[in-house]
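Got a spare moment? Tell me how you read both lines of this record:
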Amino acid sequence: MKQARPLLGLAAASTLLASGLLSGCGVAGTGFSPGVAASVGDTDITVDRVDGLAASYCDAITPQLEGQVLPNSYLTSGVAGQLTLAAAAEQLAEENGVEPGAEYSGQVAQLESAVADLPEDQQEAVVEVESAGSLVSDLVIGVGRRLAEDQGLADASEEQVAQLGNEALAAWIDDHDVEVNPRYGVTLEGGQPVDTDTSTSVAVGDVATAAMAESPDAEYAATLPESQRCG
């Protein structure tokens, strides 16, 4: 499986997103209840939250797309994967008494300044979505430093600290009930979101195949109803 692509940045609007399919329904053969997008330990991430963030994020980046059209599924999948990973990192950090550091707060401040002229819902979506990577990174490094201290590694290198933190996050995910609704086409593997075919259906025909492509198909996206596309 390939590592999931990062979410679309306002400064790099041509970057493509991970694929998936948003649905508010339960998934047959899984433990997901209607309205649940992901389960992270004792916490559920709702479809409404993923849907709302993805919609507001789409509104924010549409001017940057310059006529390009993306299926909404690329946005919802990316948002679901990022929120799931961030929730896992936050719970791991809480267990180790770690809080986000300067990298995360600096990223949030930069984003808030960049989107200050947008409507409030779009500001919140951009900040949450695009700061998720910095949040996870800060928490992982903080956990790594705490573990290095516990192990008596006073002179641990940055690489050692990062390795300890990443290993701890991957282990936490493996040891807890962390699942993303299969409809999004993304799972967490080795402490990272990865694209994966979790669909229970088989693509038949050119249109169905285009819907499941790893990169957005502009021709396919243009055929979607307005409610199912961004741009």
Notes: Residues 144 and 160 are 8 Å apart (CA to CA). Strands lie at 36-40, 43-46, 70-71, 178-180, 186-189, 192-195, 229-230. The chain has one domain: 36-230.
